[in-house]
Amino acid sequence: MTTTVVLDTSALMMPVELDVRLFDELDRVVGSYEPTTPQPVLEELRRLSERGGEEGTAATVGHDLATERCLVVDTEESYADDALVELAREGVADYVVTNDLALRDRVLEAGIPVIALRGRNKLATTQP
Question: Ranges for the VapC9 PIN-like domain (predicted)?
């Protein structure tokens, strides 16, 4: 059975904003997995990329990573955070990657482990 790791907007922006080698770190933490992201995350990244500056660049890189490396899935929810929680509650996600504290708490409440930044550029898992 494949491990599904669902990435949110903040996770996909980590390579530029926080100098995190995202997929290398996920390989280290999880091993073999299917990187997945809900469609609303792509929409959020697209909107953020239009702002320009470092955030816009990070969002553009995140969008490219998502479309090139992730399985993009449709959800009932149109808001990115709600879509991630939906995937957690439905048992689609084995892990969710986020640096958003409010989202982290919601995912942990749904019983799914969260992978987030620990230290300067390493990822670690928080269990529910």
Answer: 5-120
Percent above pLDDT 90 for the chain:
94
pLDDT range class, residue 120, cuts 50, 70, 90: confident
CA distance readout (Å), 68 to 8, 12, 100, 124: 15, 12, 23, 24
Domain boundaries, position 46: 4-126
CATH number of the domain at 44, please: 3.40.50.1010
**pTM for the complete prediction?**
0.94
Place of tokens 């969008």: 63
Dihedral of the alpha carbons of 108, 3, 60, 124, in degrees to the nearest 10: 50
> What's the total number of domains in the chain?
1
